[in-house]
Design goal:
2 helices; about 130 residues; about 15% helix; single chain
Length: about 130
């Protein structure tokens, strides 16, 4: 019997060089309000979930990102249409690096944040 958990990704951590710049970028790009917490070994910016007990969380911490566009890609939900998100990514200092890619359940595009972290933004089919 193969191991089949509810989610393979339990949470994500994204390293950035400038927490204030990262907070501004991700709040603008996603439409979310990030929360700064300082009760752990590092300050963290947390993306809060609607259902904190049953979802996959993401946090941003001060660290060294992988070289430009080389690290893993985290795919994020964002408010609005992909066209809106693409505009916000660019206006917030990120870079859109692909057109929308269709999937059976929606579509996404690849981008880089101001630190060069590879991120995707996903839009589910309604």
């Amino acid at each position: 019997m193969a191991y089949e958990p509810k989610d393979f990704l339990v949470w994500g951590e994204l390293p950035v060089t400038d927490m204030d710049r990262a907070c501004a970028f991700y709040e603008t790009a996603t439409g979310a309000k990030l929360e700064l917490v300082t009760d752990g070994p590092n300050p963290m910016l947390l993306f809060r979930l609607k259902d904190r007990a049953n979802g996959v969380a993401l946090s941003i911490y001060p660290g060294t990102p992988a070289p430009d566009g080389v690290g893993p890609t985290l795919h994020l939900a964002a408010e609005g249409t992909l066209a809106d998100v693409m505009t916000r990514v660019t206006s917030a200092g990120g870079e859109v690096i692909s057109e929308p890619v269709p999937l059976p359940g929606g579509r996404f595009f690849y981008a880089k944040d101001p630190d060069g972290n590879s991120v995707g933004f996903y839009e589910a089919t309604a």
